[in-house]
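TODO from last week: model Exo-alpha-(1->6)-L-arabinopyranosidase.
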Amino acid sequence: MTAPTPPTPPFRDPHLPFAKRIDDLLARLTLDEKVAFLHQFGPAVERLGVAAFRTGQEALHGVAWMGPATVFPQAVGLGATWNTDLVRRVGEAVSKEARAMRARDDRVGLNVWSPTVNLLRHPLWGRNEEGYSEDPRLTSAIATAYTRGLRGDHPTYWRTAPVLKHWLAHNNETGRDVTSSSVRPRVLHEYDLRAFKETVEAGAVAGVMPAYNLVNGRPNHVSPYLREELRTWTDEELLVCSDAGAPSNLVDSEHYFDTHEEATAAALQAGVDSFTDHGTDSSTIVARIRGALERGLLSEADLDTAIRRQLSVRLRLGEFDPHHDPHAGTGEFDTPAHRELAREAAEQAIVLLRNDGVLPLAADTRIAVVGLLADECKLDWYSGTLIHRSTPLEGLYERFGAERVEFAEGVDRVLLKTSAGTLLKVPASPEAADGVRGAEGALDPALLAGRTDLPPLTADGTGTELALVDWGEGVLTLRAPDGRYLSVAEDGLLRASADQPGGWIVQETFRLEPHANGHLLRHLGTDRPVCVAADGVRVAGDGTEAEVFEVVVVERGEDAVARVADRADVVVVVAGNDPHINGRETEDRTTLALPAHQERILAAARASGVRTVLALVSAYPYAVEPGRLGAVLWTAHGGQAGGTALARVLAGDVSPAGRLPQTWYADDADLPDLLDYDVIGSRQTYLYFEGRPLFPFGHGLSYASFSYADLTVELDDSAEGDGRARIAFTVTNTGDMTADEVAQLYTRAVDPSVTRPRRELLDHRRITLAPGATAAVSFDVPLSAFAFWDVARRGRRVEPGPYDLLIGGSSEDVRLRGTIVLGGEAAVARPARRHGVPAADFDEQSGTEIVDLTRVAGDAVTPVGGGAGELVYRACDFGTGTTGVTVTVAGEGTVELSLGGAGSTATLALGTPTPGPYDYVTVEAPFAADGVHDLHLRLRGPLRLAHVGFSG
């Protein structure tokens, strides 16, 4: 007799709503199984046939860390395309490769941690390469396009599930787990939240990842904005995944909670649904959750809430419906279409910053190619492994012919002489007989860093000539003649064993430190000097005497540049950064300046008298002097096709049409402090910057020219809800080649009552035009796009009055102007007499920062460093009169009130310090005021001001 087939459990029934299926599966899980689900690596539940699940797969510009994959331009390069259709197609390709790779390797995850939507507020941020733009509108447009590509078009099942990084106001690596971003309400709502909000509202986001930093004194992993903002933007169950190690930081580095049980409970209740901590070992997190449950800090219902969000993502990914999942058989990997898309993206990301007519290069041009990046195809921390590669040199060889292109890297070539008179020697690689470069030009993967079977460096009478590459600030790499970088493995020995600098802790960087009559060679990865020992050259141990080296220069980089420039019609200097050195995750930059060695190479090219083109290949802006250069281009590291793309643009096969996604400043003096997140008060980004930039936001030149005409503006404010403005115009290609133009629409409030942006991007469109062709462009803009955050009413408001409409090729290249007059909502005075004034809702401040009111929610204001600060609240309505004032404060110090130099004043002092920072007390004093006045507060001492109230 055949046993009856067991019934299909409801959680596996594809015909039931997701909510019912989740309810069913939750009811079947034991408490132990639920606890285990909360770690990043959730185990399988074999009795239910539920597989293990891992949150997190890096996919910023291709599938990362899982071996060979198509590598697209860095995220900031994708932002520079200003092309949402292209970026959507890149997202589609990345998600298809993730599916194809998972079919071969179940370690590849489909919950992808990408894109990064942190705004590129400050160009010295080490992770500048990961974001799209300094502008929230452009960032959200590009991020929405990428997430739509990652998600796929099926109405039910997602190809991958994107998680946005990093919530919230995160733009510094320096002290990133202990520094707090002071973000006042206007900046929060108009700037930092906006890129997340518009992307989430577009409907292709599965969740977010909180950042390491604190915002207004509270760690992002217990942010009330997860509940108060994020989860109000969509009906979808959004999954919140912690950043790696951040749950432990709540106690270990931030000291925000006393115990890990308290911290874990607080994070879970704030909205964190998956804990990324202690790698693959879930035991620590499991123990903390168990401890929190035993202490009554968590309930099983708290766990259910988090697991429900996890299961929602797993259902959307088709995990429980393999026969219905349309993406299950996706096998598109390294296809011709993906390779072509990588080239197209790299081409569209190139920005022509300056051109005096030297570009494009004629086919018979003799080219000298020089610079540290000329024969490099650099990867960053979030890159996949290259299957194909093209360097600028290789691209120019292919496009112009090797006979017309001559190369000099321009690095100093040196010998390192020991105190005994011997020279450092790089032994031949065992693979040397076959050559270390593969068919695609990359070093053999067998020669990557970490190998300990290769022979270490020695010292003898002949030595090896090394390429000494100076990346700035004294940070060096040393390379053998066959291209292998010197690296240090775990045994401390120096070997030529790396194809590139890389790794979480870079083992390929050194510093030469003057010492006695020579230099110590310090290895930066271990912070130890190098010595020559019996078993080879190694980093010195405790008590080991470091070697003092004499640096013998065989050839200076400038001399090599002069030699090849002498035989050329044009010199192309390829400069920029290595994404693992002097600016990356964990390390901010210190200056906008090009490294001194690269300035020397550029100066040598200029001094040759030959026309010079500077091609910057970098993850961030530089301050360069463009005046003496024939042309300047910039591209982010362009992935596998970057060299081919650059050569095609230089040759004029394609007209450059990338546009700057962030302001390029002329000098470090133009920058605010890296930790100053008040873009309004300190006039940051193109929105508020009042100086003269080196190159403005949105800037980019073309080999064609374009004219703008026929502006029309139509206003429809009669509809219920949000009205619309329709702005239309034409763009004509007046040049002689097909080219793309990026038409940009900005606005500016003509007579604002508060500080508003100098101009603000409303929309943009990238269009392709043949010579003489005209395109009609129109933008349908909701009137809510003209709103600002009114701190008096604690909400967004469109202010009545005229608004300029500025249309053209960049934020400063305005071709058409119009004006629209909006009715909006009139300003009202703050109801100070009735409701008081929340401290953080100031209009202006100096010397203060916002801190947490409590560990759970709310904001207070304190003087920076416990000193003195001032706050101004405009147009406060005191009604028919007040007789007293109260301040809600903690800590110690005084609060002084005045009405802008007229009327009553009051001083309120905390006679006795409160026991702790959250132990607020109310202090009162007489205060007479009536009518509408500006309220001025002076804070002195280490106090926290929460609220000011009035009575009478």
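Done. The longest helix spans residues 84-104.
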